[in-house]
Write a structure and sequence with these properties.
single chain, alpha+beta, five-stranded antiparallel beta sheet, three-stranded mixed beta sheet, 3 helices, 8 strands, 26% helix
């Protein structure tokens, strides 16, 4: 399936190259920030990501992007790590973060709460399952405005 938005086209272009040099492509976001456009390429690895890793990937992908020219506007290229508290936006992200502590922000309250925390369980087309203590709660995907992992010093 061909991607038609800028981030999707860039993801298709860069994913094999990023994998070839030993990293995983976590996310690609293209957005306008103030007067400028920014292309943020987020990479990950089991060993974590350092500034040197970001620089290595930046040097490798910059000429590819120039050659393929998938973006009409001038833009700033950023390469970053997903961080400890990483945003969960895609099904691949949910697969990678299953079993981790997460915070889920909702568009409108569910049982009086706009922010829920728990352990990310399964998901399907309609809902994400969040384990809160001993209980599983199905949260309609359309109700979720944002979801990210939670860093806990105690390792839970």
């Amino acid at each position: 399936m061909k991607k038609t938005n800028v981030a999707g086209v860039v993801e298709e272009l860069l994913a094999p190259v990023v994998a070839e040099i030993g990293y995983r492509l976590w996310d690609v976001v293209y957005r306008k920030v103030g007067a400028d456009y920014t292309l943020t390429v987020t990479i990950d690895s089991d060993a974590g990501i350092t500034i040197d890793d970001c620089e290595k990937v930046h040097r490798r992908i910059d000429p590819l992007l120039d050659e393929a020219d998938p973006i009409e506007n001038a833009y700033i290229l950023e390469v970053s790590s997903p961080g400890i508290e990483r945003e969960i936006r895609t099904e691949a992200h949910m697969d990678a973060c299953r079993g981790m502590a997460v915070e889920v922000r909702l568009f409108s309250p569910l049982d009086g709460k706009r922010v829920l925390t728990g352990t990310l369980g399964g998901y399907d087309k309609e809902a994400v399952t969040l384990r809160e203590g001993e209980n599983d709660r199905r949260i309609p995907r359309e109700s979720i405005s944002q979801m990210h992992t939670l860093y806990r010093e105690d390792g839970e």
